[in-house]
Design goal:
Helices cover about 20% and strands about 30% of the residues. It has about 240 residues and is an alpha/beta fold. The chain has a 7-stranded mixed sheet. A 5-stranded mixed sheet has the order 1-2-4-6-7. Strands 3-5 form a two-stranded parallel ribbon. The two termini are about 15 Å apart.
Length: about 240
C-alpha cells in the first residue's frame, strides 16, 4: 500500500484479521490494492479489523471495505474514538450505519483467534491522552507455534519508551514502527526486540540514498515494501517462512 499500512492475518482456524487499512495516497487503496488482494485469497469476511491509531494513512481505507466484505468487529485504542477529526467521525459514522461492533483494547489485554494468541502491549488505558497519535499506537505481540510477531503502528516517543520499559522479549518478525523512521527505529528498540526479520511498510524513497538497516547491529534482515513488495510470513510447527 506504499506509505500506509495493511497487514492481513490468516489464522489457522480460518479467521481473517486486519491490522490497519489505509495509505497516504488516499482511500482508493481499498479499491486498488486491499480488496483485490483479499478477493484473490478467497476472502469474503473480515472477522476483526484492528486500527493502530487515528492517522489517515492507517485507517482511511476502512469505510470502503464495509460494502465489500462482511466485517465482524473493529478494534481501536482507548483514544481513537475521541479524536475530533472529520475523518475519524466519518469512519465511526460508516461503522454505525453498517452496525459493526466497535470495541477498545488496552495494554494487558489478551485476545485469541484459535491457536493465535494476541497480547496488547500498548497503549495503556490512561496517561497518554495528550501528545501525538503516534505515541498511542496499538502495539500487538502475536504468538503462534513458538513464533512471535510484533506490530507497532507509528509508535514513537513517549510511547516508545513505555514499550521499551517492559520486560525484554525477543521477537521473530518486527513491523518497523513509523515506516522505518529513524526517530522510532533506534538501537534501543533493536536491543529490546532483537528481531530476526524487520519489515518496513514504506512509500517511494525521498532520494537516491539507499535505505540503511537500523537493525544491522543485531544481524536482522531488513525488508522494505517499496523495494520488495508485499512480504508474506508463514508460521508452522518448527518453521517460520518469510517471502518477498
Amino acid at each position: 500500500v506504499g506509505h500506509g499500512g495493511c497487514l492481513v492475518l490468516e489464522s489457522p482456524d480460518g479467521r481473517v484479521l486486519l491490522y490497519d487499512a489505509g495509505a497516504m495516497a488516499g482511500p482508493d487503496v481499498t479499491q486498488r490494492q486491499i480488496a483485490p488482494f483479499l478477493w484473490q485469497r478467497g476472502i469474503r469476511r473480515l472477522d476483526e479489523i484492528f486500527l493502530s491509531h487515528a492517522d489517515l494513512d492507517h485507517f482511511n481505507g476502512l469505510p470502503a471495505l464495509l460494502p465489500r466484505f462482511a466485517v465482524g468487529q473493529v478494534t481501536t485504542t482507548p483514544t481513537f474514538q475521541e479524536r475530533p477529526t472529520a475523518a475519524v467521525q466519518h469512519t465511526l459514522a460508516a461503522l454505525g450505519r453498517s452496525r459493526i461492533p466497535l470495541r477498545t483494547v488496552k495494554a494487558g489485554d489478551r485476545l485469541f483467534a484459535g491457536p493465535l494468541e494476541i497480547e496488547v502491549l500498548h497503549p495503556p488505558a490512561h496517561g497518554l491522552e495528550q501528545g501525538t497519535e503516534n505515541a498511542r499506537s496499538l502495539v500487538l505481540r502475536l504468538c503462534h507455534e513458538g513464533h512471535t510477531l510484533l506490530l507497532t503502528g507509528d509508535l514513537e516517543s513517549p510511547g516508545l519508551e513505555q514499550v521499551l520499559s517492559l520486560p525484554r522479549r525477543p521477537v521473530d518478525v518486527l513491523l518497523a514502527p513509523h515506516h522505518g523512521s529513524r526517530f522510532s527505529n533506534r538501537p534501543e528498540l533493536a536491543d529490546w526486540a532483537r528481531p530476526r526479520v524487520v519489515v518496513s511498510c514504506q512509500g517511494p524513497p525521498r532520494g537516491p540514498v539507499r535505505t540503511p538497516n537500523p537493525y544491522a547491529c543485531r544481524g536482522a534482515h531488513y525488508l522494505t515494501t517499496w523495494s520488495e513488495g508485499a512480504v508474506t510470513v508463514c508460521s508452522r510447527p518448527g518453521e517460520l517462512i518469510v517471502e518477498t
